[in-house]
Structure formats: structure tokens, C-alpha cells
TrEMBL record:
One Pfam entry name: Pro-kuma_activ
Signal peptide: 1-30
Name of the molecule in the record: Protease pro-enzyme activation domain-containing protein
Organism: Pelomonas candidula
Keywords, in A-Z order: Calcium, Hydrolase, Metal-binding, Protease, Serine protease, Signal, Zymogen
Length: 632
């Protein structure tokens, strides 16, 4: 795979330009927590913190070409993936360049704690005054709308000119927590608000691993729906493979064993290894413990004999970067999934709203490129706000409704996992809502029911819950999507505004570039609708929960399924997109059994299911056994 003419250097230049065009927002504009952070003034000069200094790849265009060769069946490099040491020698900064950075830090009194094995991250600790001196980062203390204290540069940071060729970004100067959200949702909240019944918990009966009951589906049901059983029949259970989970919350491993036992799976009691990155994430329902729990249960349930490594980090800017770099640098996992993210547009430096920069997305891209070069297949949830990903930004509806995609799912080296609703009858308080066929997940299919039984005021009650998808305005369309039927460009008239709820004054934030030929997502999808969703066992959330869904299920499920396929092919699989897209546009061999099933119904509030690709369900859902057969 290649980004074509848009390599890393071009993307970095585009990032710098795009950051300038963002409109200025009012100082009191609410951020992700729902209220504007309160500036408490300059940080104490001797206050310490630890940062992650992300270094730039070398020979990035050659890395793109190498990755493409590793997944080309006609190349002598096919599936000849790199070790971490080989990757570092070929593509990471030289030891001399790293020494330049560490010498610079030492000269400013900043202590180097660690250099990651891949040579792309330096962990370092210093004081506010030292970081101000080194990176012109004038640190201020803040308190967010939930009363949590944090600090960040009042006006960003700058890399010294003589190190600009080595340093990409300094993460961790901003210590704000809860910057990223899990992509899971439950039916019970909306049902309770309407006085409707909660989904009932139904466990498998007898020797079954499946329930056959929508809302109480298990991984056994996923195997039934998506062609996994033929792999099990051949003895493919994930043995010899290791599944990786990247997450921003800690969890109780006992919950996973309880779930697997309840659905009749006999698994190794020592299969899970936990790695707490940067001290690890919080262990609470509010922090998202249930999110990590479902990731482990779903991926591990589909590949019951695979080992598992769960990397958890704090929900901060540095935490989200470090968790990927640590997992990929360790290079012990064969597949890796993440169910957290944030709207891509928040990376465009909009004062008062965004707390990241475009450099963060490039930082993600570097590590996902390394993963592909090492043969690790990576999956990310595409989001649960349909085509309107900014609806996850509090305090909605003070922001206008614009079409956006989620990061890091939008990265071209990541398989973006979208959502569907499976066919069936959904029992509601006043009757049945019939879903005639598996369709793109978007809760507007409840509109007729809501209007008939609650009145027109409820028409958009479920807006905009559904499978994430759309067009990136940052990542150009990758070669594997070229000539694929159904590719879209970014839509016109997408103006992001904020209306102050107290004064009614509307402020302009940003105009999303129109007609951009960008990366389309999702790539593939699985059932994610809570009303046709799943069981989860979570101690932090009180035990068994039914009616759980979101694309947070699709990404770990794909993680587990492709761990099976990796075992079946006796190899890591690396970048999956060329095979999934049947190689159109790059001369890849066309497969007679591509293993994807088109979804031609439903919508995610904007993109409708049609023949061919669409940014609702992507290429469609999968048939795992057919996919395994399609890979040579």
C-alpha cells in the first residue's frame, strides 16, 4: 500500500497549513467535558511531569513501498515481516540523531527515562520551567468542567529548529484526562427514558455457546453469523497466536473468564497478560472499564486458544500515543485492536475545542506503519455517532451537525470497523420494529415507530447513533481504494459552529474542506446495534448486561477472527486492505472468493447501503472462512 504522491513529508506540510485555517473560537467555548476549562494561571516553575517525545521516521516513502511488497503475493518480500530491531535499523532515527535529542534534553535539565526499542519515543521528565525553556511551552494550570485539574501549554509548543528534522511532536505537555471516548453504547438508556423495558439477559442453554437472542448475543452467535464455524471445524482456534488490545481503562481479568465460562468455552486460566503503560488506566465504570472488558471477552471468545496481551494507559494524549508505541515495539501480538477515538476534526487546532494537533495523527500513522511492516494487523472502531462524529463532543447540541470521521480509525494503515443491524424483529413497548435484512446501522429506522407512538417531537430522538463512516479530510485516498466503486469525496457546506446556550450567540469554528478525495471509512463491518447486540459481564458495571453494542464490538471481533485466519495461514497477515479491496488500482490479484458480503440497505443517517462500497458499512460484512481461503 502507498499513499501515492502524498508521503509523510507532504502530509506534514499539509498539517501545518491546515492548522492555520482553523477559525478562532470564543475563549469561553465548551470543550469535550461540556464546560470551558478554567485557566488558573501559570504552572509552578518546579512542577514536574513526564512527556513522550515522538521522533520522525526515516525513509518513510521506502517504508510505504516495503509494506506494499509484504502483502503482494507476487513479491519476494511477501509476508517477510520485520522484527522491531530490523525496523529500527531501517526506518527509525539513527543513534546519533537520538543522541542529539537526549543531549539537548540534558542541556535543559530534563531527565531521559527511556528510549523505546523501536527508537521512535523518548520518555523524559522535567519541570515546567525546563519545558518552557526547551520547547517554548508556557505551562498553565486548568480545571475542567468536571473539576479535574490538569496543565497544558497556553499557546502550544515549538520544536527547536536544529532538531526539527528529528522531533515530530512532544506529547504529554497536555495532561488533560478523558480526551478520548470508547465507541460502545447500550440500548437501556434510551429505552428507560421512554419508559420501555430493558433488554433481558439470556445465557446460552445446554452445550451451546450461542443464545440466538438479539441483545444477548455471544461470540458463539458471531461465529454463526459470519462464517467462523468452518475454521473451528478444521481445528483453527487461535492456538499459537497472540491477540493485542490497546485501551485507556484497566479492567478485571476475572470478568473475561466469567464470560467465557458462562458461554461454555474452556480457555487457559493464564492466557491474559496485562501491561500497564504510563501507570495504566483507571479501574472504574466511569473510566471505561467495561469497554476494556468487552474488548477482551469478544476477541478472546472468538479465538479461545489465543494468548492475549492487554495494554492499558491513562486516557490522555500521551497515554493514547504510548499505548500503541509500546504494543508495537514489544512486537509480541499478531493482531491489535482499539475501541477508543475522537473526531478527526478535533485535531485541527481550534482554540477552546481541540486539545491535540495534527502532529498527533501523524504520530499514530508512524506506529501503524511500523505495525504493518512487522506483520501486525490493526483494527479500530469507526465510531457510534453515524456520519456525524462530532456529536460525541460535549455539550451537544450546542455544536452544529457536520459530517466527520473518527481518528485513529481513519488512518490508512488501520482497518476501520463499522456497524450493522442484523435482520429480525425488535420487540418494543408498542409493537415490533421489523428489520428485513442486515443493514447499515443507524437508529433512524426507529423514526416511524417513534412518530406513531410518541409523536413527531421524538422523530430525531435517536439521532445520530449509528455506525461511524465518511470521508477523511486529512488522509488522502490510499491506493487500495482507488477505482473501488462507491468511493465518496467530502461533502460541501459542512460548517462547524457553536451556539452559546445562555446568549444564543453563534460562533464560527471551522469549515470542513469540500470535495476532498480522502480516505473512505469504514472498511468492513459487523453487527453493532445494541438492539441486536450482545451480552457483557462487567464487575465495574454491576455484572451481566444485555443490549450492549457499538463498533467497539466490531473491532475486537475482527481482531479475534483475523487471529484465527492468521493461524490458518501459518503467518501474520500484515496490512489487510489490499486483499479486502480485491487489489483494485494497484494490480493486485483479484480473488475469486473475496470473503465480503455487500450490505445494500439501511444508513448511518447520511450514507445509505448500496451495491458496492459505501461509507456506511464499507465493503460489507465478512465470511471468515471465505476470507481465509482467499489469502494465499
Amino acid at each position: 500500500m502507498s499513499l501515492g504522491k502524498h508521503g509523510f513529508h507532504e502530509l506534514m506540510r499539509a498539517a501545518l497549513c491546515a492548522a492555520i485555517v482553523a477559525g478562532a473560537a470564543p475563549a469561553a467555548l465548551a470543550g469535550r467535558s461540556g464546560a470551558a476549562p478554567l485557566d488558573l494561571g501559570a504552572t509552578a516553575a518546579d512542577a514536574t511531569q513526564t512527556v513522550s517525545i515522538i521522533l520522525k521516521l526515516r525513509r518513510a516513502d521506502e517504508l510505504d513501498a516495503f509494506i506494499a511488497a509484504t502483502v503482494d503475493p507476487d513479491s519476494p518480500l511477501y509476508h517477510r515481516f520485520l522484527t522491531t530491531e530490523q525496523f529500527r535499523a531501517a526506518f527509525a532515527p539513527s543513534r546519533n540523531d537520538i543522541r542529539r535529542v537526549t543531549d539537548f534534553l540534558a542541556a535543559n535539565g530534563i531527565v531521559v527515562n527511556e528510549v523505546y526499542p523501536n527508537g521512535l519515543i523518548i520518555k523524559a521528565t522535567g519541570t515546567a520551567s525546563q519545558f518552557t525553556q526547551a520547547f517554548q511551552a508556557i505551562m498553565h494550570d486548568y480545571r475542567d468542567g468536571d473539576g479535574r485539574a490538569f496543565r497544558r501549554p497556553a499557546h502550544g509548543h515549538k520544536v527547536p529548529r536544529d532538531l526539527d528534522d528529528v522531533i515530530l511532536y512532544v506529547a504529554g505537555l497536555n495532561t488533560q484526562s478523558s480526551q478520548f471516548r470508547p465507541h460502545s453504547t447500550q440500548a437501556k438508556a434510551k429505552a428507560a427514558a421512554l419508559g420501555e423495558a430493558q433488554p433481558a439477559v439470556v445465557l446460552p442453554a445446554g452445550n451451546n455457546t450461542a443464545t440466538g437472542v438479539p441483545g444477548s448475543f455471544t461470540t458463539g452467535d458471531v461465529a454463526n453469523m459470519y462464517g467462523v464455524n468452518p475454521l473451528y471445524a478444521k481445528g483453527v482456534t487461535g492456538k499459537g497466536k497472540t491477540i493485542g488490545i490497546a485501551t485507556l481503562a484497566n479492567f478485571y481479568p476475572s470478568d473475561a473468564y466469567t464470560y467465557w465460562s458462562a458461554i461454555g468455552l474452556n480457555v487457559s486460566p493464564t492466557r491474559i497478560t496485562q501491561v500497564h503503560v504510563d501507570g495504566g488506566g483507571d479501574l472504574s465504570a466511569k473510566a471505561g472499564s467495561g469497554e476494556t472488558t468487552l474488548d477482551v471477552q469478544q476477541s478472546g471468545g472468538l479465538a479461545p486458544d489465543a494468548k492475549m496481551v492487554v495494554y492499558d494507559a491513562p486516557n490522555t494524549e500521551a497515554g493514547f500515543i504510548d499505548v500503541f508505541y509500546k504494543a508495537v515495539a514489544d512486537n509480541t501480538v499478531d493482531t491489535l485492536s482499539v475501541s477508543w477515538g475522537s473526531p478527526e476534526i478535533l485535531n485541527y487546532e481550534i482554540p477552546g475545542v481541540s486539545t491535540e494537533s495534527l502532529g498527533v495523527m501523524v504520530a499514530y500513522h508512524q506506529v501503524f506503519a511500523e505495525a504493518a511492516a512487522q506483520g501486525i494487523s490493526t483494527f479500530a472502531s469507526a465510531g457510534d455517532d453515524g456520519a456525524y462524529d462530532t456529536n460525541s463532543v460535549a455539550p451537544y447540541p450546542a455544536f452544529s451537525k457536520i459530517l466527520t470521521v473518527d481518528s485513529p480509525a481513519a488512518d490508512p494503515y488501520v482497518v476501520a470497523a463499522g456497524g450493522t443491524t442484523i435482520a429480525g424483529d425488535i420487540q418494543r413497548k408498542y409493537g415490533v420494529v421489523h428489520v428485513p435484512t442486515e443493514q447499515v446501522w443507524g437508529w433512524d429506522y426507529f423514526n416511524d415507530y417513534l412518530i406513531a407512538n410518541y409523536g413527531s417531537d421524538y422523530k430525531d430522538y435517536y439521532f445520530s447513533v449509528g455506525g461511524g463512516g465518511g470521508v477523511s479530510v486529512f488522509w488522502p485516498q490510499p491506493d487500495y481504494q482507488k477505482n473501488t466503486r462507491g468511493m465518496r469525496r467530502s461533502e460541501p457546506n459542512q460548517v462547524w459552529t457553536y451556539t452559546d446556550p445562555t446568549t444564543g450567540v453563534q460562533s464560527y469554528l471551522y469549515t470542513v474542506p469540500a470535495n476532498v478525495k480522502g480516505r473512505n471509512l469504514p472498511d468492513i463491518s459487523l453487527n453493532s446495534d445494541p438492539y441486536t447486540g450482545y451480552l457483557v459481564y462487567s464487575t465495574a458495571d454491576g455484572g451481566w448486561i444485555a443490549g450492549y453494542g457499538g463498533t467497539s464490538f466490531a473491532s475486537p471481533q475482527l481482531n479475534g477472527i483475523f487471529a484465527l485466519i492468521s493461524q490458518a495461514k501459518s503467518s501474520r497477515l500484515g496490512l489487510l486492505h489490499p486483499m479486502l479491496y480485491r487489489g483494485r488500482g494497484e494490480g493486485w490479484r483479484r480473488q475469486s472468493q473475496p470473503g465480503t458480503v455487500d450490505i445494500t440497505a439501511g444508513d448511518n443517517w447520511f450514507y445509505s447501503g448500496v451495491a458496492g462500497y459505501e461509507p456506511g458499512a464499507g465493503l460489507g460484512v465478512i465470511n471468515a472462512a471465505a476470507l481465509a481461503q482467499a489469502i494465499r
